[in-house]
Amino acid sequence: MANTLEVYLEVLDENREIIEYDSENTKELRFPIKSDYEDLLNRHNIKYNQKAGKLCVEKLNLPFSYFINIDEFKNEVRYKHLKKDCIIHNYDDSYLFFSKHDNKALSNGKEVDVYIFNNTVCYFKSKDFFKSNYTYNDGEFEFTDFYSDTDCVIGFSLPGDKSRLVLKFPKTGIPNLSFIEDYSKNYDEFVTVFNESKHHPIFLKNAMVSNLLQSGKEVYKAFFDKLIKINRDAKLNFNVYLHELSLDKIKAEYKEYKKKYYGNQNEILNKISSQVLALPVSVAGSAFALFKLKDSTFAIILICFALCAFVVYVSYIVAIYWYDIITMNRQMDYDFTLIKEHKFFKDNEGELNHFQEIHEDLKNRVNKLKTSLRLINGLVWVLNLGLIIFGFTILSTYSEIQYLIMILVGLTLYVTMSHFFIFKDQNT
C-alpha cells in the first residue's frame, strides 16, 4: 500500500496542470472526467463525485491534510489537520510535506529545515495547555486567569499588579509564527518546568508576564520567541527562592568589594608613581655629584655606598608593595570562591558571569601592578648599578673584562634578590 507522500505525488503533484481547486467556496479539487483519473482515485480509495462536468474530491476525503499554499495553511489550519500527514501544495516551486510519523518536513523529496508544522503544533498545544489550566480553585493560585474561544483571548495577571498580559489568537488558523526557529524543544521545557513542582507555575507565570508585558501587538509570537528566557528566569527565580537568596543584594555587596579593591590598588599605584617620578631626579643628582666630586676618593666611595643603600631601601619598599598585592589577590580569590562555591551558582552558572567579569577585571589590574613593580625595581637596579660602575671608573681604570665582571656580579645580585627576596610567591 502506497504511503501518503506517494499518493500525493501520483494523484496531485503529477497532475498539477489539469487539477482545479476552488479555494473560495467548496474547497474541492476537480479533475477532468476521464477513465484514467477515475481509476487513479479508485486505486487509492479516494471518494469523489461527478459535478458540473468534473470529478470533484473534497479535501477531507484525501488521506492527508491539504492546503493549496502557505497563506491558506496559515488562515485555515486546525489542530486536527496536523494529527495526520499534511501537504502544502505550492511551496517554492514544489511542495512541502509533513510526515506525522517521522515529524519531518520534506520538499521535493528532501528533508528541509522548515518548522511551519512543528511550530503550528506547538501553538495548538499551548492553547490547550493554557485552557486546561484555566480553573478557579476557591481563591488558590491559577495559572491562566482568563480564557475565551469566543473572544479569542487568553489572560494572565499577577497578584497586586494591575497590569494584565493578553494573548490574542485567531478563530481559525495560526497567529504570526516563525518558521525558521524550532519552538518545540523550548515549549516542551516550558511544560516540564511547569510540572516540576507545585511552586514552579508561580515563577513561570511571573516570568511570562514580566517578559511579555511590553511585547506590542504580536504577543503570542513573542511568547514563543522568548521561551528560552522565560524558562531560564522561572528556574532562576525558583532557585533564588529555594536558597533564600537576594541576588540583587549579593551583586550590591560584591560591587562594594570591587570599590574596596580598586581603592587598595590605586593606593599602591600612587606609591609606585611617586617612586617613578623621584627616580630621574635621584639618578641625575647622583651622576652630577659623582662628576663634581671626581677628585675626592672618599666622597665618591661615600656616594657609591649611598647608592647601594638606596637600592636596598627601594627593593625593601617594593617587596612590601608586592606583599600587599599578593595579600589583596588572595583575599579577592577567597571572596570570589565563596560566591562561586554556593550551591545556587553551581546550579545557575550563567548568573555567575557578572561576578566573574568583576573578578577578572580586578585580576587584570593586579597583573598590571605586578608588572609595574618589576619594572620600577629593575630600573632602580640597572640605573644605580650604572652609577656605581661610573664611580669606580673615576677612581681607577679597569679593563673590559673587569667591567664585564662588575656588570655580571650586579645582574646576578639583582636576579637573586628579585627572585628569592623581593618577588616571592610569583605564582599567586
Q: Give the count of structural domains.
A: 3
Strand order of the biggest β-sheet = 5-6-7-8-9
End-to-end CA span: 74 Å
pLDDT averaged over residues: 81
pLDDT below 50 for ≥5 consecutive residues: which ranges? none
Residues in β-strands, percent? 5-15%
Radius of gyration, taken over Cα atoms and rounded to an integer in Å: 40 Å
Shape: elongated
The succession of helices and strands, N to C, reads: HEEHEEEHEEEEHEEEHHHHHHHHH
Helix fraction, binned, reads 55-70%
Count of alpha/pi helices = 13
**Main beta sheet: strand number and arrangement?**
5 strands, mixed
Q: Any overview of this molecule?
A:
The chain has 428 residues and is α+β, with helices and mostly antiparallel strands. The chain has three domains: 4-114, no CATH class; 122-242, no CATH class; 247-422. 59% of the residues lie in helices and 11% in strands. It is built from 13 helices and twelve strands. It has helices spanning 4-11, 35-43, 70-76, 116-132, 184-196, 200-212, 219-225, 227-242, 247-292, 297-340, 343-347, 353-395, 400-422; strands at 20-21, 28-32, 49-51, 54-58, 65-67, 86-91, 94-99, 104-107, 110-111, 146-148, 153-157, 164-168. A five-stranded mixed beta sheet has the order 5-6-7-8-9. A hairpin with a 2-residue loop joins β6 (86-91) and β7. α10 (297-340) runs antiparallel to α12 and α10 (297-340) runs parallel beside α13 (400-422).
